[in-house]
Amino acid sequence: MVILKTAREIAAMREAGRVSSRALHEAGKAVEPGVSTLELDTIVRRYIEKQGAAPSFLGYGGFPASACISVNNVVIHGIPSAKQILKQGDIVSIDVGAMLDGYHGDNAYTFACGDISKEAQALLDATKQSLYEGIKNAVAGNRIGDIGNAVQRYVEARSYSVVRDYVGHGVGAKLHEDPSVPNYGTPGRGVRLLPGMTIAIEPMINQGTHKVRVLDDDWTTVTADGKLSAHFEHTIAVTPNGPVILTLPD
After folding, report:
1. What pLDDT sits at residue 16?
2. Where are the chain's structural domains?
3. CATH class of the domain comprising 7-245
């Protein structure tokens, strides 16, 4: 069931989104060679808790950390570790959620670790822009398929592939709510978008095949062919005046 939010609830989600966004970018500023992914996770947790909020991911479904940190061919759900040390040329996807006053904000960004290859930068640029192509279509009266199709068309025109096994989702008092928000689809199909809907749009885009596999820890999800993957995400509200991004730092 899709839960429509009041103006008051959307304002509360904007505050949660602000905390989540700032935590994400605090971690992003620390991405450099020699830093461990556990250090990045610690930055996220400390920032969120200092704001009086709680990390949405910590303990969620048994997840053992405050952020999902996914490096290079890891698509999503990478578990931070003191043993995983970032290297020059890595790309580092950090996915952060924060709960404040009963509502969640959820966002992700893929950061470059030092100088990265032109191919890696092109993947990051395309994935980031595909997020905004999706957001532009999160308009009242459109359907979920319009969002996914916009993402899919943009990246496939650049010879990338869209992960099918994981999708975006509704966000609110629960971290994951209806509806599902795939990054692929058919225009005019799926749930109709209504004012008051709050959703996380999160393209997960691969250099090679769209296929993925989950490692033995039951969390870490990697590309099936070992090629790079990028992940960008915002929580947005559908309003009568167009989409509003709720996960902004200011």
Report:
1. 98
2. 7-245
3. alpha beta
